[in-house]
Amino acid sequence: MADPELGRRHIQDPNATASKIPHFGYPSRVVPCSVDPGSCAYLDAAYWMQDLSMLYTYSTFPVKRHTHPSIEIMAQYLTHCSLCIHRFIMWGMIGSILFIIFALRVANPRKFEKPMQRRELESGNMAKNSLFSRAWGAVSAGARRHLLKPEESLTRYFGHVTRLQVAILCGILAYLFIFTLVGIVYKSWVTPVKQSTSFNIRTPLGPMANRVGAFAYALTPLTVVLSTRENVLSLITGIPYQHFNFLHRWIGRIIFIQSVLHTLAWTIVQARLYQPQPKVYAKFIAEKYIVFGIVAQVLIAFIYIFSIKRVVMWTGHEFFRKSHYIAGILYLGTCWGHWARLACWIIPSIGIILLDRGFRLFRTFAIHRKVKDEKKGIGFKAAEGKITSFDDGDGGLVVRLEFSHDQPPWKAGQHFFLCFPEITVWQSHPFTPFPNRLQSHAHHAYIIRCLKGETSRLPLLAGTATTPVILTGPYGTPILDKTAPNILAIAGGTGISFALPLAAAAVAAASPTNNEIPAHRVELVWVIPRSQNIEWVQDELNALLHSYPKNVIVRIFISRESPPLELGAVDDMKGSAGDNEEKVTLRTKRRSSFMWPQHPHLRVSWLSDHHPDMRNIVEDFIANQPAPPSSAVPTGRTQVVASGPAEMGRDLRATVAAANDAGQVWKGRGGFEVDLYWDNRYF
Fold this sequence. Notes:
Blueprint: H1 6-9, E1 20-23, E2 26-30, H2 37-57, H3 69-85, H4 90-107, H5 118-123, H6 131-147, H7 155-158, H8 163-181, E3 189-192, E4 199-202, H9 205-225, H10 232-237, H11 245-273, H12 279-285, H13 288-305, H14 309-315, H15 317-338, H16 343-367, E5 369-373, E6 377-380, E7 383-391, E8 397-404, E9 415-419, E10 429-431, E11 434-435, E12 443-449, E13 467-475, E14 486-492, H17 496-508, E15 521-528, H18 538-547, E16 552-558, E17 571-574, E18 580-583, E19 602-606, H19 614-623, E20 638-643, H20 646-659, H21 662-666, E21 674-678
Parallel strand pairs: 14-15, 14-20, 15-16, 16-19, 20-21
Antiparallel strand pairs: 1-2, 3-4, 5-6, 7-8, 7-13, 8-12, 9-10, 9-13, 11-12, 17-18, 18-19
Helix pairs in contact: 2-9, 6-20, 8-11, 9-11, 9-16, 11-13, 13-15, 15-16, 19-20
């Protein structure tokens, strides 16, 4: 992009002298200043503020107000050196935070702990945790108690998020607010206009608007990387990519606000403070870089409006995703056209998008690269899935998708993006698999609720013999804490596809036939509206209960049905959640077209018209930890893994936060350290 006209835009005539001082992100400064003293003073202040703006985003040595030529040459040399070093302040802070998180992950003493063995439990000879381990646990418990709790007063604005997420956002806002105002020359100059009796009013409003715009450019790569699936931040922090969605949305909104302020400020300067009008503003608005800026402003306004949750509900998630991608790419291009001197932020943003898309395509082709037959050789072959449709009992539909695919290997809790070519090749959605009958990870099974959009057409494929499926993944970081002796897996509705494989993986590590295997106590809690929903995973529940009969308890809460009259042969007991709970025995009768799993460790609660209390469920699980030496399992840390409605996540966060007690953990009582992994990859 060509420079704006320096004669008008920057007061001085660039042809008046050959001496120029380069300034990163801004046109070079023409020296010496040959205009009126007021304009020269304004230029000194404007370039000084501009250099500070670059320092706060992309570091460069500020060129101060010099008078001696030798000092000007030295300043120019230092500026060039600083451009080679490419130091950051804002991004340096971000990098420092990421480095600290990575260092804490490496130093985590839990990584070096040996899981408690069964023979140690039975003998009662258990090694005590080290001082460092107890200190780590106490700090972790204290942080969860204060930061995991949802901020109810801000739910209207932020949704069901934790205090930690709000605190990070507030830290970003504080940095931007402080450094937007620091280093501004709060002074105005009244300068004459050539060949006119009018006067220009020169204020710091323009340089401040430039700083706000520079921050918006500098934040662009961050909001882009927060939105990617192939996320380098996940590799560094261990946090799954979907948990960055909150920051992605809000940093995007910050950029939108900054762009509005930038546009408004320069409109005031060019349409009001500079004279004569309307000649100045008409010439300003017709310049090429301003046209690019206007288009960029329209695009980011479109992105913001059509990413509001209520608007997404009106337009559909598919429209949101497609329009988001297209408008986002166009926005980056127009930002480059608006101010190419800050393309150092736009180029990485475009590069991140291309790399993310490239890795996705590579994953997909790597997964589906198969030998079709001897004649055709190697080619792209989709998985062949079978779909079974279920009525959820409330007028909705749920489908179960099954297929065999041996690549790539995946861990419990990870998810794939699935595309159904018979519906459309332009959409894919995230779903969590579980092994069919819990036998092999080469046999995928998915439980999918049919909502609006693509999934609403899945039941139409249930009548076909097979359905081609294209998958990309797996995505997600390892979830289970192998050293935690107590695992509580909670699911709401179709969230069972997340919780069930985690419960199976945890209980598989606690095989009762081997004393050298870590001992785990595992409980699976599933909240469903109708008893017939059991048939979604009845084979897997049977396999879980009968394969590991001593290590797992399954509790099912049915929220919209009363106890059936035909359950005549049950052992009544008072459920820990405060409702009538039955232990289903072999004498339980068949209710419908499905058969209840039969096992003494399967407990069913019929709630009629309400949901179970998550606090009671978690507190009962923690309170029922047997004390060593016991033939069962030890007391110790608890990990809660859960997936379900947003309200369930809110309640679990509050409950787990309250269950943590740093003081008790410091004393060596691990039962007061409770961790939570909440699966949330939706808008």
